[in-house]
Amino acid sequence: MAKSMTGRITRFISGIAAAVFAVSGFAVSANADSYSGISIDGDFSDWDSVVKYDCLSETSHVNNVAMVWDGDWIYIYMDEEQQNSASWSSDHYNTHGQFNIKTDLGYVLVVSFENNGAEGNFIQVTDVETGNVYNAANGGIQVAFNSGYSTWLAPTLTEIAIPSSLLPQYSSTINFGYYLGGNIVTDVADCSGYIHDDPTPTPDPDNPTPTPDPDDPTPTPEPDDPTPTPGPYNDGSEIVIDGDYHDWDYYPVTTIQYDTAGMNNNYNDAEGSIYQRDGIAYVHCIANEFSKQDTGYKYGTEFLEVTVIFGYTHTKLIAIELGPDGSLDWSSSRARSMSEGTHHYALFYFSDAGLSTNIDNISSLDHYLGDMYVTIEDHQDETEFWFDIAALAECGGIEPDESQSIFVHFHRVGWPMLETSGVSTGPVFVAVLSTVAAGSYFTLNRRKKAR
Fold it and tell me: Are 195 and 74 in contact (CB under 8 A)?
């Protein structure tokens, strides 16, 4: 929904190069001299040159992990404490067996481990837009275990290959870690463009200056420290609230989880973004398979009440369905389900009298504060809306200022809240790109081509 097939293609095309993306390089965890590619075959010797990262959590039950992003595939290595222990691994007291690949824009692809006895863990990922589930049984991903995996006290090693086409939106790098928890491997770039045959001929000590062959000219050496052009990125300046969500593509997101620990599915619960421009807050949220949660509010109705917090003062917006003729249906805010398609709402203050019958004739006892669109599809509910920050603050008798944080919370969806700063006369970029930063270094300057 928020990501079209065009988006899947354009993510590989160089895009907007904002100043914050002018980095010196990217991290790839492999030894330049010995890395020659990964095969998912149960022979783990091809991982010898890849850096392993410790899982330090007391509840991890995994010794270490590694990740390589090599063109069309993302490869993951896992050394468990014992057979199937990744299936109860966590760095959070209430999540088990859920890892994720998180992009530098904050989007996540959940990698779920389930105990499958002597057969090793059953591992799967889900494309949340289509609902398609990928695992080794249906050929969607590749998984292999070492030959002694189910032998007591023997090493328990797993290697996984996930198609890059399943990645959600990213700009340049990805991380691997726990869903709703910390990253273990960070700032890994697609290294396929930098694994190449060294074009510089090997010097001959007996003939240090070979005569060029006109039929076989020496290629121009590539630079020692290639810096990839960042992929698509969205600074929010073109966002318009109109029910077409693609202007949020490649804008950073925050993972939102229902009931703190999430719904323990093999996909993320929800994700949201907030942006502020000229005193107007713009908000976007996607909820995945939210009809399965147990609050009773589903099929888009989970968005119809929005809590806004100024500092420590709570207030609330309610969504009133807006008809094509401008009519207002005040009963809609109490709805518990909606039909598929896109619905248009007007946002009002939660304690308004509800006397306005048309958007063109607002009662003095009501306060029209913004617009919302909600779209319901098979696997996702999605919303975008704007509201006037100062007008909402005035309704609540609040004095907003530049230093005061403003939080937006979908209390029917989950935590965390989305945060922006106080009223501003210009655009405010509020999402931190935690994994794309100067100082990340691409460790492979020149490597042999993987064969």
Answer: no
Q: Which residues of 234-260 are buried (b: 16+ CB within 10 A; e: fewer)?
A: bebeebebebebebbbbbbbbbbbbee
Q: What is the mean pLDDT of the chain?
A: 79
What span, in angstroms and rounded, lies between the C-alpha atoms of 168 and 11? Answer: 9
Distance CA 398, CA 420 (A): 16
Contact indicator for 110, 8 with CB cutoff of 8 Å: no
d(CA 229, CA 14): 6
Give dist(CA 228, CA 380) in Å, integer: 33
Which residue carries 């993320």 as its tokens? Answer: 268
Q: How many Cβ atoms from other residues are within 10 Å of residue 113's Cβ? A: 26
The pLDDT of residue 197 is above 50:
no
Q: How far apart are CA 94 and CA 101, in angstroms?
A: 19
213, amino acid identity: D
What's this model's pTM, rounded to 2 decimal places? 0.80
DSSP-derived letter for residue 119 is G
Q: Tell me the per-residue pLDDT of 84-93, one tens digit each, with 9 for 90 and over.
A: 888 888 776 5
Q: Report d(CA 191, CA 30) in Å as an integer.
A: 10
Ordered strands of the 156-163 beta sheet: 53-54, 62-70, 73-80, 156-163, 142-145
The pLDDT value recorded for residue 107 is 96
Residue 218 pLDDT exceeds 60: no
- pLDDT at residue 207 above 70? no
Q: Which of 430, 387, 424, 421 is nearest to 279 (CA)?
A: 424
For strand 173-178 and strand 98-103, is the pairing parallel, antiparallel, or unpaired?
A: antiparallel
Tell me: pLDDT of 260 over 80.
no
400/406 Cα distance (integer angstroms): 9
Counts of helices then strands in the chain (DSSP H, E): 2, 22
> Which of 28-32, 191-195, 405-409, 412-416 is predicted least confidently?
28-32
Return the biggest CA–CA distance within the chain: 95
Three-state DSSP at 14 gives: coil
The helix, strand and coil proportions of the chain, stated in percent and rounded to the nearest 5, come to 10, 35, 55
